[in-house]
Design brief:
This protein is of the alpha/beta class. It contains 18 helices and 19 strands. 46% of the residues are buried. Iron/sulfur cluster binds next to loops.
Length: 472
């Protein structure tokens, strides 16, 4: 990572037109990791992961850097038709208890190899729906994690909230358990859209819960929105945006819906004729940027907006943004231990992903094995490119000297063809190139993953972009 300047900040009221979006909107990865998860291989397995855990335990990292933990809870009570997550739809809540027993086993095995009591400064419960678990189960999960790890004061402890599954009391319990950040899945406030995606949650319910979250003193409240859903039009989405502005969450994640029914079965229930045309989607994105920035939000980057007072916006201003599998983060680039079915982690210079079905997950844990399905040990070239891509995604600039010193290369020789490829982007006003480095412009910040893709060796060699969503 470079110690670069802050990412550029867009301040214009209407910063980007549908025409510009159309011109630069090509498919590309979100770079929550480099290499991206589709590059993981099954040749990397449990033995490699164990080695990475033990190396961490025996090296300086365990003492010097706190961990990040991700826990995947796969269950949901009902199916949202746009869903592309790894989840299990069930009304049988007793399945949560069984899952927790196996999670406990996975934690015990992990800790046996990496040492007990390691400091954790970031914890994220995702899914599925973590709030599928009862309060007692969530409390048992947190007690189990606290027995195995040390959750340090002042850390970021976040949980995804399905508003349909929580009450004031449940939020109070989460606060008591030490969570200080909530992320509400909203997607859209329009009743017709909610009906079309099979996710009915009245706006009043979300407003009440966010108000309660404020009373309870949560440090940050995030709201997820999706544009491009069935029955959405630029007019209906503008109404949703107006309500979001009134709700005033600290952070907003705004994702484009990618309709891939051949890959994601639930999406087959969405009628193609109900989907907004591409031109309307671009208008919705353009409106979102205009409305949110006019309301005082800062465009943090890659689908994320935040109030200027939020830690993410502050980190952006100070050039301290980082990126991990959950998106942007204020925490330094620390090892991420991922727990639960299908979860993805990074320890040292390795990535690993757990098996994707509960049967396999339970079976391997019954055998006393960690349920790693695939992963990757990063090569020296991967590490250099990762540093460049993360610097672009987080700081919006790459200082050649910084990469040269930390990776012992001559930047201009090593990346001669990439620098050549960037000249076209320079002409289009997306970046500037000088002797010191690459600097993404205000305009280019919206298309930063297109800039990053130039340094992605895997994409450049086999150009399988079609499987990724559009850049913005
Ligand atoms: S979108 Fe979220 S809540 Fe809905 S089915 Fe998928 S994981 Fe569950």
């Amino acid at each position: 990572m470079t110690s670069a300047a802050c990412p550029p900040e867009l301040t214009q009221a209407d910063p980007i037109s549908p025409e510009l979006l159309r011109r630069y909107d090509v498919a590309g990865p979100r770079y929550t990791s480099y290499p991206t998860a589709d590059r993981f291989v099954e040749a990397f397995g449990e033995a490699d992961y164990l080695q990475a855990l033990e190396q961490r335990r025996d090296g300086l990292a365990a003492k010097a850097y706190p961990l990040s933990l991700y826990v995947h809870i796969p269950f949901c009570e009902s199916l949202c038709y746009y869903c592309a997550c790894n989840k299990i739809i069930t009304k049988h809540h007793e399945r949560g208890e069984e899952y927790l027993r196996y999670l406990t086993r996975e934690v015990e095995l992990t800790v046996n190899h990496m040492g007990a009591g390691q400091s954790v400064s970031q914890l994220h419960l995702g899914g599925g729906s973590p709030t599928f678990l009862s309060d007692n189960e969530l409390n048992a999960l947190m007690a189990m994690l606290r027995r195995s790890f040390t959750l340090v004061p002042g850390g970021e402890y976040s949980v995804e909230i399905d508003p349909r599954t929580v009450t004031r009391e449940r939020l109070a319990n989460l606060a008591q358990q030490g969570f200080n950040r909530l992320s509400f899945g909203v997607q859209d406030f329009e009743p017709a859209v909610q009906k079309a995606v099979h996710r009915i949650q009245p706006a009043e319910q979300v407003f009440d819960l966010v108000a309660v979250s404020r009373e309870l003193g949560f440090d940050s409240v995030n709201v997820d929105l999706i544009y491009g859903l069935p029955m959405q039009t630029p007019e209906t989405f503008e109404r949703t945006l107006d309500q979001v502005v009134k709700l005033r969450p600290d952070r907003i994640a705004l994702y484009a819906y990618a309709h891939l029914p051949e890959r994601f079965k639930p999406q087959r229930r969405i009628h193609t004729v109900d989907l907004p045309p591409a031109a309307s989607k671009l208008t919705m994105l353009s409106s979102a940027m205009r409305v949110l920035m006019a309301a005082g939000y800062v465009y943090v980057g890659m689908d994320h907006f935040a109030l200027p007072t939020d830690a993410l916006a502050v980190a952006k201003r100070q050039g301290r943004l980082h990126r991990n599998f959950q998106g942007y983060s204020t925490q330094p680039d620390c090892d991420l231990v991922a727990l639960g079915v299908s979860s993805i982690g990074r320890v040292g210079a390795t990535f690993s992903q757990n098996v994707k079905t509960l049967d396999e997950y339970y079976d391997l844990l019954n055998q006393g094995r960690l349920p790693v399905q695939r992963g990757m040990a990063l090569s020296r070239d991967d590490l250099v490119r990762r540093a460049v891509i993360m610097a672009l995604m987080c700081q919006g600039s790459v200082l050649f000297e910084s990469i040269e010193l930390s990776h012992l290369i001559d930047f201009k020789t090593y990346f001669a063809s990439e620098l050549e490829a960037l000249t076209a982007m320079q002409e289009q006003g997306l970046l500037t190139l000088d002797d010191a480095g690459i600097h993404v412009t205000e305009l280019g910040w919206f298309f930063v993953r297109g800039v990053a893709m130039v340094f992605d060796k895997y994409i450049q060699t086999d150009r399988t972009r079609a499987k990724f969503s559009k850049i913005i």
